[in-house]
Write a structure and sequence with these properties.
The structure holds 3 protein chains of 3 kinds.
Chain A (H helix, E strand, L loop, with lengths): L1 H31 L6 H17 L7 H19 L8 H23 L13 E4 L2 E4 H23 L1 H11 L1 H6 L4 H23 L10 H15 L4 H21 L2 H18 L9
Helix pairs in contact in A: 1-5, 1-8, 1-9, 1-10, 2-3, 2-4, 2-8, 2-9, 3-8, 5-6, 9-10, 9-11, 10-11
Chain B lengths: L1 H21 L1 H27 L7 H18 L3 H29 L5 H20 L1 H4 L20 H21 L1 H17 L5 H27 L9 H14 L6 H19 L3 H15 L3 H8 L17 E2 L11 E10 L2 E11 L3 E6 L6 H8 L7 E6 L2 E2 L5 H6 L2 E4 L11 H10 L16 E2 L1 H9 L15 H14 L4 E5 L7 H18 L2 E5 L3 H7 L2 E6 L2 E6 L1 H6 L1 H6 L6
Helix pairs in contact in B: 1-2, 1-7, 2-7, 2-9, 2-10, 2-11, 3-4, 3-9, 4-9, 8-9, 8-16, 10-11, 10-13, 16-18, 17-19
Chain C lengths: L2 H15 L13 E7 L9 H17 L8 E7 L4 H14 L4 E4 L3 H11 L5 E3 L12 E3 L4 H5 L2 H9 L3 E7 L2 H16 L3 E8 L7 H10 L3 E5 L3 H12 L7 E4 L4 H7 L7 E5 L8 H14 L8 H20 L4 H8 L3 E4 L2 E6 L2 E12 L2 E11 L7
Helix pairs in contact in C: 2-12, 3-4, 9-10, 12-13
The chains are: A mainly alpha, B alpha/beta, C alpha/beta.
Chain lengths: ~280, ~575, ~375
């Protein structure tokens, strides 16, 4: 019973964090069609923001504005200098952002060194949850992620920006014709996407390893989630996270972690092949 | 042309001279980059020619390398055992890729990112398998102690083997790209759907290109194993795959020499920077961003942009055509039946019980107000729209569920309203593709003879549209009217029994319209085809057709000669306007 | 093809091969030692400490008159990439720079490529902890083998920490598998049982299912052969579930950097077995550590068993060369057995191209290690089949 509950909580946690990590890529890839290979590096920037604030003796919450600022500025510059020239050339975006990811890793390595950064635990210890000991920070994080996605969902549904992004995506020339500044909107969407990646980095920093090369894992799992869930909807993002996180958790529990990883790869290949628009497609 | 041939020969001689000029060590180093360049050549074939990007080429490289490594260890110098095993090292990756390509491309038209991501995931899977299956592959530590090729020193004359293979492969690719197969690959990248309407199975073409590229990767792997003496899972990995693409992009994705130049330049650059600058990877990353942004055609494109360096592409004279294309036409009476055809997309009924029958040759017209379902009727016939009710039969065989190329192979040719020619190909190449449609066999795809094909209709069209004689012009450089006429000529050159023309006069000037009307009437009569023409302009209909179908709201409203249809009160009610 | 490119290319290849002709080596010529270490890739973390340690050893040896009366000149190359890159780098030093010997601190895949490249024609000292089993002529291995790290340590853990039910977890490759194969024998010999064994892909970043399995297996000890980032992530998650209170952890590659990443509050009941820790307080080790930080500053890359092994590599080269009286592999082969030297790790004595030496068991003490036991002169086990 305890084991089932632990595994269940772990699954919820895995799905929530995967969705949080993939959100930034869902925005950038799903809405703008930019296969941002440097997505994981923005997560890394967020995690390093926590390190910087910790070294300055500030609490982890201080890392939120720092991560938003750093990712926002870097994202703005990247969109302006690289991405905006390549919106109609998906392969080239992929290659250019791959180059960018190398550059970002190296700049962080030069600035902070190659070694693992130790982030202090936030809310250390466990909480007794129906008889199982579960880490307190994880529970808080789950609540924060749920709240964040709830707000995002409402905002995207209700706000004008959501409507305008949808308009731009479904018909760029028309959106431009009705007076939407598509260039600016695209830039803001990109910046928003990389900023959420940075926030994911902040949230996860106390739980994971923090070093300049941490990004690549997040990039790949995010791609798989989007592939399974389909592009351009929050529901799809959650479904994708559930399928990927669930497959990994179930196969890893029943067999071994390597099998879980290979099962995720296989599922992704099958989706790319048979259902390239994902389970939740708007098309 | 002549210039690049001289340059290639010079390059080859220079490569052969490297060991003498710079010593065996440089040659050994260069050998590895040339091996990587071979893989890049395969990527360039897919990416620069056929328009799809394989992101996981290391999978095939690694499979080739592991098989060759196992073969070299197992054969123990026995050449008779080794040769077939090395052939397997090339064949297995090639067949695997062709199979993956067929499965994926058959489901997905176009060259979107999904195929690329599949190849990426496959290479990651390959890495994990190579890592875990340590009894076969040696695991992370690798398959070690692989001997050299019998009688060949890995640090010495293996270099010449590599250069020889590179020369043969480069010549082979040069030849391949000139064959109809190569021309069709370029056409696939530009307008895959249009090519399908000429009866070409583009997924098979792409799968074949992917198979060839994987075979090259396997061949490179088979050279890598004796060159390095060790094969590790990194040879199957994601990072090496990415590097292959980087070298190809930097060197030039659309050229034969480009990927090799890219691998060599980046290889030596990295090897030098590595010792001089700890953060050398940042420099490579930067070079890569700049290349993609500023020089999408890579170093080779940079050279080509210099005036006078590659002047061969400007204007070529028309080709000599002196081989009669295989005869194709048959003179049966047509038989086309639409039986209560329904097409529905979501809640919208696009076709709603359309029934009509055509059993006489000549020109039939479909008219009707906007949204009547005229183009949709064509789409339903040609595999572009799935039927949700009824059936369409052509000579007694259902067309439902067929793919566009399968419909085209049943002798149905179609021209779209917007002129769809292959813009980057020459007029000659465009016409070739139409002449090859339904005539070219598998063997002829890889021969130069079809370039000389002609037909009587070809001569007639060239007399009528004189710009067709200037066959070296790039199709994209033609005026809109000329492109319509080229597209029209291509549609008829197939000599299909049924020709579908969707507003062939759209966008033409008054003079051009008259010329086009005259051409349709004369050409169709000369080959005795059956044509269905969608037209808004009643003057065109009057001139061309004595049998008119009027469509309204996805159904047939009336049919008959133009006078009868005009007199029909129902038609008068819904369809206002005899002229534009 | 572009002519200019070709000219450029030809020029650059010519420049690279323009190696000064070397005549007969004079006695005063320096001994060139190729030092192959990772500055990029996953092992890049250990490049700086290894480079420093090498430079320190060179300075000391040269200050005392060099090896065989000749000064040492280290030439560094980055071998953090795949074996083919390492092959190129080593070949450049060997044939281009004409180095007389190699010292390598890199993964086993690169070692496989290099032994195949060198084929015993040039002395090659391999320094890092590894799975054992290397037996090529001219290749001398300094690193800890599983036999050294576990044979004395597992009984100690059983006797002092009550470790009886072991869960083995490592990354999915040769070193963890071979280490665990050795571990099973020692665990059974100490009366313990194996309650689980699992291997994770390098990409693993979620360890929840493993932790749940460890918990439900009833394990009281975990043997960790995860490397680098995976070890950091696993140990952090392990602690966040409160497992350290009931389960003791033993790692065979948890060095100072990994421990820093794990963090002080996550390192309770964590043990590490290695030939070197920065915290060893023998006079030789403290002198070394003092010299290291004196030369490279207090902020220099943290000392650890991999970085320090490069210092030992230079010391072993000196001992071998001086015993053999030359740097010829044939002479070295004859002299190797019984060669010994004293370093920060204590006395090392060579047999079967490996060394027997002291092994240290340390307990994580906050962000650092505290040596709790020293096992003297442990043999590297049987490595030549």
């Amino acid at each position: 019973m305890d084991l089932i509950l632990t595994n269940g909580m772990n699954l919820v946690y895995a799905v929530a964090t995967l969705a949080l990590i993939a959100l930034g890529l869902a925005v950038v890839f799903g809405l703008l069609g930019v296969m941002n290979m440097a997505h994981g590096e923005f997560v890394m920037l967020g995690a390093f923001s926590v390190y910087v604030t910790q070294e300055a003796g500030l609490p982890i919450l201080a890392a939120v504005p720092l991560a938003l600022g750093v990712c926002g500025i870097v994202g703005y510059c990247v969109e302006w200098s690289i991405v905006r020239h390549l919106y109609s050339r998906p392969f080239d975006t992929l290659l250019a952002t791959w180059g960018l990811s190398i550059l970002m890793r190296k700049i962080v390595e030069v600035s902070f060194g190659r070694d693992y950064k130790s982030i202090d635990q936030v809310l250390p210890g466990t909480v007794d949850l129906f008889g199982i000991a579960y880490p307190s920070y994880r529970l808080v994080l789950l609540a924060v992620i749920a709240g964040f996605f709830g707000l995002l969902f409402i905002w995207y549904r209700r706000s004008n920006t959501g409507a305008r992004i949808k308009a731009m995506v479904s018909n760029p020339p028309l959106a431009a014709a009705v007076g939407i500044d598509t260039a600016r909107l695209a830039r803001m969407t990109f910046v928003f996407g990389v900023c959420t990646a940075g926030l994911a980095g902040v949230a996860l920093a106390p739980l994971v390893r923090v070093e300049p090369y941490m990004g690549i894992d997040y990039l790949l799992s995010s791609f798989f989630i989007l592939v399974v869930g389909g592009l351009g909807s929050l529901e799809g993002l959650l479904i994708g996270s559930t399928v990927i996180g669930g497959t990994d958790a179930v196969i890893s529990t029943l067999f071994a972690k390597t099998s879980g990883y290979m099962a995720v790869l296989l599922i992704s290949i099958l989706f790319l092949w048979l259902r390239p628009d994902g389970l939740f497609s708007r098309r | 042309m002549a210039y690049s041939r001289v340059a290639s020969l010079l390059a080859f001689v220079l490569l052969l001279a490297v060991p003498a000029l710079s010593g065996m060590f440089t040659a050994y180093q260069l050998g590895l980059y040339l091996i990587f360049g071979l893989v890049g050549q395969g990527i360039a074939l897919c990416w620069g020619r056929a328009g799809f990007l394989p992101l996981g080429q290391a999978l095939f490289f690694g499979i080739g390398a592991y098989i060759a490594g196992a073969a070299l260890k197992g054969a123990d110098g026995n050449v008779f055992m080794l040769v077939p095993l090395l052939a397997v090292a090339v064949a297995v990756p090639a067949l695997l890729a062709a199979l993956v390509g067929l499965l994926v491309f058959n489901r997905q038209i176009g060259s979107g990112p999904y195929f690329s991501l599949i190849t990426l995931a496959l290479t990651m899977l390959g890495f994990q398998l190579a890592n875990s299956a340590d009894t076969i592959t040696g695991g992370f530590n690798g398959m070690t102690g692989i001997p050299g090729l019998p009688g060949i020193d890995s640090f010495g004359n293996l270099y010449f083997v590599i250069v020889g293979v590179l020369a043969v492969v480069s010549l082979g690719l040069y030849w391949l790209l000139k064959t109809p197969f190569g021309v069709l690959l370029s056409a696939t990248a530009q307008n895959e759907e249009r090519l399908q309407f000429f009866g070409f199975n583009t997924s098979a073409l792409k799968a074949a290109a992917f198979g060839i590229s994987a075979g090259l990767a396997g061949l490179a792997g088979a050279l890598y194993a004796p060159h390095q003496g060790i094969v590790t899972p990194q040879s199957v990995g994601f990072l090496l795959s990415a590097e292959f693409v980087i070298w190809t992009a930097v060197g030039g994705r659309a050229s034969i020499a480009g990927p090799v130049i890219g691998a060599v330049v980046i290889g030596f650059l990295a090897s030098e920077l590595r010792d001089a600058f700890r953060y050398w990877e940042a420099v490579i990353g930067l070079i890569f961003i700049v290349t993609v942004l500023k020089f999408p055609q890579g170093l080779v494109g940079l050279a080509g942009a210099l005036p006078g360096w590659f002047s061969d592409a400007a204007r070529r004279p028309s080709r000599r055509r002196d081989v009669a294309a295989p005869p194709h036409r048959s003179d049966d009476a047509p038989s086309l039946v639409f039986d209560s055809v329904g097409v529905r997309i979501g809640p919208v009924r696009i076709l709603d019980g359309l029934s009509l029958r055509i059993d006489k040759p000549g020109i039939h017209a479909i008219i009707g107000p906007n949204g009547a379902g005229k183009t949709s009727a064509f789409n339903a016939m040609t595999g572009r729209l799935p039927l949700t009710a009824g059936n369409i039969a052509w000579h007694g065989h259902s067309l439902a569920g067929l793919k566009p190329y399968q419909v085209a192979r049943r002798d149905i040719s179609r021209k779209f309203q917007v002129p769809s020619v292959f813009a980057d190909l020459t007029v000659d190449e465009n016409l070739d593709i139409a002449l090859w449609a339904n005539r070219i066999g598998l063997a002829a795809l890889f021969s130069m003879r079809p370039h000389a094909w002609r037909s009587d209709l070809f001569e007639a069209l060239a007399e009528r549209f004189v710009f067709l004689k200037d066959g070296g012009t790039t199709a994209g450089a033609l005026s809109l009217g000329q492109r319509q006429m080229l597209d029209f000529s291509m549609t008829y050159l197939t000599e299909a029994r049924l020709v579908l023309l969707d507003e062939p006069c759209a966008g033409l000037s008054t003079g051009e319209t008259a010329q086009m009307i005259e051409a349709i009437a004369a050409i169709n009569a000369s080959i005795g085809s059956t044509a269905i023409i969608i037209e808004h302009d009643m003057r065109v209909v009057e001139r061309l057709s004595d049998h008119v179908f009027v469509m309204h709201q996805g159904r047939l409203l009336a049919e008959g000669n133009i006078a009868a249809v005009r007199a029909d009160p129902e038609v008068q009610a819904v369809y206002s306007g005899g002229t534009k | 093809m572009d002519r200019r490119l070709f000219i450029k290319l030809a020029a650059s290849t010519a420049a690279m091969s323009a190696v000064p002709a070397v005549g007969a080596a004079l006695a005063a010529d320096p001994i060139k030692v190729g030092v192959l270490l990772p500055q990029s890739g996953p092992g890049g973390l250990f490049g700086p400490s290894c480079e420093n340690a090498t430079n320190l050893a060179v300075a000391e040896i040269n200050g005392a008159g060099g090896i065989l009366g000749r000064m040492i000149e280290p030439i560094f190359a980055d071998v953090g990439g795949p074996p083919s890159d390492a092959n190129q780098a080593a070949l450049k030093l060997w044939k281009g720079e004409k180095v007389d010997a190699f010292i390598g601190m890199h993964d086993s895949a690169v070692r496989g490529a290099l032994t195949n490249l060198f084929k015993g024609q040039v002395p090659y000292i391999y320094t890092p902890v590894y799975e054992g089993g290397e037996c090529a002529a001219g290749t001398y291995v300094l690193g800890e083998t599983p036999a050294q790290q576990l044979e004395p340590v597992i009984p100690w853990m059983a006797a002092n920490k009550g470790a009886s039910k072991w869960y083995l977890i490592g990354n999915d490759y040769n070193w963890p598998r071979d280490t665990n194969t050795a571990a099973k024998g020692y665990i059974e010999a100490s009366g313990g049982t194996i309650v689980g064994e699992e291997y994770l892909p390098f990409t693993a970043d979620n360890f929840d299912s493993n932790l749940a399995k460890i918990k439900s297996s009833g394990a009281d000890a975990v043997l960790i052969t995860l490397v680098g980032g995976a070890s950091v992530g696993f140990n952090r998650a392990f602690a966040s579930f409160g497992l350290p209170d009931s389960v003791v952890r033993l790692g065979t590659l948890i060095e100072e950097n990994t421990l820093a990443g794990i963090g002080a509050e996550n390192s309770k009941n964590l043990y590490s077995s290695a030939g070197y820790f920065a915290a060893i307080d023998t006079p030789a080790a403290t002198a070394f550590s003092k010299a290291y930080h004196g030369k490279f500053g207090a902020d220099a890359a943290a000392l650890n068993t991999l970085g320090e092994s490069c210092y030992e590599g230079m010391k072993l080269l000196q001992a071998l060369a001086e015993k053999a009286g030359s740097l010829d592999v044939a002479d070295l082969e004859n002299a190797a057995d019984g060669t010994s030297y004293d370093g920060p790790r204590g006395r090392a004595t060579m047999s079967e191209r490996h060394v027997s030496r002291d092994v240290f068991l340390a307990e994580a003490d906050g962000a650092g290690f505290k040596v709790v036991e020293v096992f003297p002169a442990v043999s590297a086990g049987k490595n030549c089949q």
